[in-house]
Amino acid sequence: MKPFVVLHAACIGLALALAGCGPASEAGAALESSSQGPPLVLQAGSSMPVLLRQMQRAPLTTSYQGVRRVEQYWKIDKFRQTTVYREQVSADGTGQYTIEPLELVEPVVTPSELAVWLALQQSREGFLFRYRDLAVRDVPTFARNYSLLRLGTSAIVAGRDCEELVVQRRTNAKSLYTLAVDRETGLVLRCREETVEGALLGLMEFESIDFAPAFVPAPPWHNASNDEVALPAGPAGTQLLGFEPLLPDTDGDKFVLLETTKLTSLHPSGSGTITWAKAVLTDGLEVVVFLHAGADPNPPADDVMRVSPSVGPWSHVEGTLHGERVMAIGRVSAPDLLDLMESAL
Amino acid sequence: MDSLNCRSFREAALEADAPREHARECSACAQWLRRFEQREGVLRSLPRQLAPESLGGRVVAAIQAGERQARAVRALQGLGRLEQPAQLEQRVQDEVAGEAAEKANEPLQALAGRQLAPAVLDRLVAEELSDPSKARVARFAGSVPRLKAPAELEQRVAEELARPCRLALALLGELEQRVAEELARPARRNSGSAWWIAAAAALVLATLAPIWILGESRVRPFRVEYTDSFASMSPMSRGLLESASSGMFGRAAAESDASGAARDSR
Fold this sequence. Notes:
The complex is a heterodimer of chains A (345) and B (266). Chain A is of the alpha+beta class and 345 residues long. Chain A is built from seven helices and 15 strands. In chain A, a hairpin with a 2-residue loop joins strand 4 (146-157) and strand 5. The longest helix of chain A is centred in the first third of the chain and has 18 residues, at 2-19. Mean pLDDT of chain B is 70; it is low at 187-191 and 210-217.
């Protein structure tokens, strides 16, 4: 059955390619305008669209304050979990931001559980702003890995005129994003994530937004609560960590390195700390956090990577490679994470 | 923000009666203090958990662990030596002498009242003696509990088997659409397309087939274990996933770990 399907596809594919109407004829083209005929898919090329650059910059360069609703319909292991909440997000346009959780709509919890959730959610604002929220994180890498479809339609979100886009990874797509992007600022005001089969995974939608907030008094801007510091390259980084950091090889152009930092966490035994080298990578849209903690004090006999059940769209692998303790989590498939692990060897 | 003053203030603020003047002048520390007090309030509002009753004894034992052996030796040394009662030796001698006399008079009398071994035992012993290895394997293999494959395994096998098919079908769907578009164009663009298709088939098959086959037999330089619970996950990973899921992970992991523990106990 499988060889037959491949043969069938191969025959038609090569025929079309040779006839000059297959994908090969469009390779290398830049984003093409959708002014006439059906909208075209973004292709890799040197001329990157203004919209993508605007979307990349908007979260940190736009001053705004708004209330948004976040819905997550995830499957964690074999358990279906739903969380719906509202939060106020503020950014001053110079890099300062804060996310204040307002209300937990679902699940329904006791008042004391709600107080704990609100406090924990507030303490996570750095992670949420940097890694949870959809963003174009690297335009060239995005263009290589994703298809962008401009629907040519408008939507009004929180009273703003938005352009509607559909974004999907070119290969092994797990999700499909339908975005409403503010035409003036490039800020994503609505993001609907569905599986390729059409099941809703998540929704973020601004209910109100103000692009000229006064910020008086100033909101409690995010302050890092951990000791994370930028990791210098080369021997200085090794000296700071106390070991040579393992970094994934990004030569394959599938991922690009965004930042490397050093941080410490409490040792599970309660005494002492563990020093981590943290590398954040992106495929242009999704994030992968790669962590290396140096030599494993009790290394297993052979190299082994454990793949945990998926947590919604997040995958996780963890283990020991050549006696070094490593882990990676990201909104990509587990095989992608294993590829990154392999490339770090 | 004066980082040195702020750091000193924040370290000092952990004490309940620490001065708070700095927070009036520094808005960042005022915000930090407000959040700190809010979290402290939340933590104080949590129900207090009682330690198990055995904890006290275990703590004392752990603290004095090094002394335990010395104390035991001292206690034994302090015990006085007890002499055995005078009649004990005589009684032992009587018992030994009586048993010897019984065996001499009636050797089978000692076996009276015992159960006879079942007849099948003879056969089992004979089988064991004729092929000891086979008998040992059968005995141990039969006593090993049968493990059930986790549901995750079946799902992953199905996904792996479906992957090349999905890829091929996706490619097929896209290409068939393009064929339809091509055929819909004017006849002069289609002239000779049958020849192109025939030539293309052989070339692409030769190109794609090895790639497809190699893709199936990917070997990684490390062993990959697919786990069906979060139990072995490090605290760092749990923390990251808890943040990524806005708290959903903790609830699901607790359910998953509990169902895993129940499965293991069965």
